[in-house]
Amino acid sequence: MDHHSIQTFLTVARTRNVSQAAEQMNLSQSAVSKRLKMLEQELGILLFERVRGNKSFSLTPTGESFVDVAERWLGVWRETQSLQFRSPNLFLSIGSLDSLNYAFLPRLYQSLARHAPKLNLKVVTSHSRELYDLVDRREVDVAFTLLRREQPNVMVEQCFAEEVVGLRLAHPDVPDKQIVHPQELAPQDELYVEWGPNVQMWHDQWWDPGCPERIFLDTAQLIFSFFFHPRQWTIVPLSVARQAELTGRYRIFRFAVGQPDRICYKITHKYPKTGVADSLRILDGYLQELVEKPT
Fold first, then answer.
1. Are 56 and 201 in the same domain?
2. Are residues 242 and 283 in the same domain?
């Protein structure tokens, strides 16, 4: 099994068509088919369903499962190849959430990028649960997540807590109220993003968690694509709200009842890769500055 066969498999899995895959890879169709056949023989499994006379392929259930394995294999191969070109500089791979990358961590990234001696950085965006797996597999050295859970090889520590606030359009039909009671906000007008278990528990005490009319979103960035009506509202961390407010299109409000903070956790592997310890100490120094002076 080599990177050529894995890349070919992933290209055909994406296009589901041998001729399109061959064109993208600048290969003949016969070369593509040969690589797939050799890969299946080496693995001893059937990856694609083929129909005679039809250039379109469909993945078998085993093939569907192998896509994730192939992507990880190719990622490891690329990292291995990069070792021969890597300078003696420090390196660090960071996993984080979309919302943190958008509004809280840019200052940290800028500090790390300007650090001397130079840090080779890699940033991966994913969801909280998946970040634990990335750290466990040591695909990232450190990650920032909203979820606290026990995992044998992962160390978890609270990194910071941040206030959550309400956000809605700056519209003439929307009263410019700085304090709003939850009962004034209709659940069907909500743009919902999950901000961690503690915020979700508080949220569900005031609004029906099963309301089918609300719009469910999985990243903070999507919120701004769905804001179009003056009745709409959402709950976001203060850092996200302040970034949005700078555009002049949105207003921040706070709740008349107490709400919990969004809690962010830093997770690392119990046995980090060789050479990462110094990079993690540098990150911790900049992170402490960011938490002490968030704005």
1. no
2. no
Query: Residue 69 belongs to a domain with what CATH number?
Result: 1.10.10.10
- Measured between alpha carbons, how far is 18 from 137 in angstroms, rounded to an integer? 33
Q: Helix or strand or coil: residue 55?
A: coil
Place of tokens 């929307």: 174
155 shares its domain with 285: yes
Q: Number of structural domains, the chain?
A: 3
Mean pLDDT, the chain cut into blocks of 10 residues (295 residues total):
86 87 86 88 87 74 90 82 62 92 89 90 91 94 93 93 94 86 95 92 93 90 92 94 93 93 94 88 92 71
Q: For the purposes of burial, counting CB atoms within 10 Å of the CB of 108, is it exposed (0-12), middle (13-18) or buried (19 or more)? A: buried
Residues 152 and 273 in one domain: yes
Q: Which pair of structure tokens corresponds to residue 288?
A: 């402490």
Structure tokens at 125: 């965006």
pLDDT of residue 3: 83
Together in a domain, 109 and 232:
no
Q: What is the structure's pLDDT at 82?
A: 65
Same domain, 60 and 117: no
Q: What share of the chain is helix, strand, coil (3-state, %, to 5)?
A: 45, 20, 35
Residues of the domain holding 39: 3-83
CB 265 within 8 A of CB 145: yes
Query: What span, in angstroms and rounded, lies between the C-alpha atoms of 35 and 11?
Result: 12
In whole angstroms, give the CA distance from residue 288 to residue 280.
12
- Cβ-Cβ contacts under 8 Å for 114 (sequence gap 6 or more): none
Q: Report pTM.
A: 0.67
Q: Which residue has the tokens 């961390």?
A: 237
